[in-house]
Design goal:
The protein has 509 residues and is α/β, with parallel strands linked by helices. It has 2 domains: 8-195 and 419-499, FAD/NAD(P)-binding domain, CATH 3.50.50; 274-416, FAD/NAD(P)-binding domain, CATH 3.50.50. It has 13 helices and 19 strands. Strands 1, 4, 5, 6, 7, 8 and 19 form a 7-stranded mixed sheet that branches. It has a 5-stranded parallel sheet with strand order 10-17-11-12-13. The longest helix is centred in the last third of the chain and has 30 residues, at 474-503.
Length: 509
Amino acid sequence: MPLAEENPLLGDPPLILPVVVIGNGPSGICLSYMLSGYRPYVSPEALHPNPILHSKLEEARHISIPEQDLEYLAEGLEGRSSNPVAVLFDTLLHPNADFGYDYPSVLQWKLEQEHYIPHIVLGKGPPGGAWHDMEGSILTLSLGDWMELPGLKFKDWAMGKRRNIKSDRATPAEVASYYKHYVKLMGIQRNFIDNTYITSVARPYRETDESIGNSSEDVACEETHTDKENEAVYKKNWEIHGFQRLADGSHQPFFLFAESVVLATGTFDAPARLEVHGENLPYVSHSISEFEEAVGKGRLSGAVDPVLIVGAGLTAADAILCAHSNNIPVIHAFRRRINDPSLIFKQLPKKLYPEYHRVYHMMCTQVSSAASNLFPTYTSYPEHFVLSFKPDMKCVLQNTSGLKKAVKISMALVLIGSHPNLFFLKEHGQSLGHHHNQPITCKGNPVEIDPYTYESCKEPNLFALGPLVGDNFIRFLKGGALAITRCLELRQKKTRHRIVEGGSDNGVS
């Protein structure tokens, strides 16, 4: 049954929930959709362009995808994710998308209330997560169709809402609005609690088991059987502490227990740092929004000294475009070679992403002194890294040959990506990654999971999906929601089966 309408955070005694999802971005939204009983089936008329996969689907066409063998279906498929279920589900939703085809999804969705798994989704703001904090005018990397969630096509929702543009790409503001409306339109809003901040997620029994065992002889005889049962139940579950920000600005503390916890926090929380001397100086920023604010207030207009932009990703490119359109001189420093095939610009079609290819063209032409006059307010420093920032507004750069150069700047923007902030876990969750005791990062050290359940390999009943497991594209996070839903449903069935079997002995002395 669905959770009650009242706020489940305020229960006394604390609630024990089957599932608590931390993070209300697209990962948390998609998982809530499936946990609410929405089931994908192969459409009766569907014909998948992959003949081998189509043959497998035909074997169990009338059985929902979560009830099928995901490992069998995913075998042999390839895609832009290292997680096989993510590739499988994307192949079902967007057949042959990476080959430029626009085949329709082979799935249809049915709401089956009997498959509802009680859960809540906790987020700092409205549903949509970090998308509400992104710059609203910049086009997203992915096509609008690839940003959509199951059951509601982005184009259908956006009909009549969007400005008249030729591009199929959406702005972050449009995507954020889509996610917020999705939760309402799909009837899953009751599962979401906004303005919640998690401060601790832990298993108390790990710290208390030994002490409880040693002091058991000192427990008073009057302790009730119910108290012992409650203690046993609480000890085996996750204990979650946090607070909710109320309308008047005050904070309401809460704590509750969860049988399973799902990490869906994304990777937008903590900007990556260079970890060099002087990085905390006031003129050094790690946020493009701070730069845009400075531009908007005219603090950089007419500045003689250029802005230093560090990084070779799309956020750095956005900052360069912003500076260029406002006639602000730029020094652009990045570690990679211009012809490095891993540069994101080399992976984007020119027709869909002309503005980013313009930045890449600027990066390339600056290597040639003969072409440097094409962009007089832009200077490129490939294969350079920052040695230090000085109090006198100077930055020391060094190239791969060891040659150092000090440049005078008006502001520094360090835009080299971001890391998830898992401060609420023991040791910030470092034990969960592929590389033990190193910070969790989306590319270098994602959370290590079972590829077909998305359960942590280090912590039972702790799941993760989305960027935390390396799926940075929204297209692929949906596979994580499918795998987790299937896993939780199978465990729920096993639990019911044990209860039924155990019930036959009730009352027998």
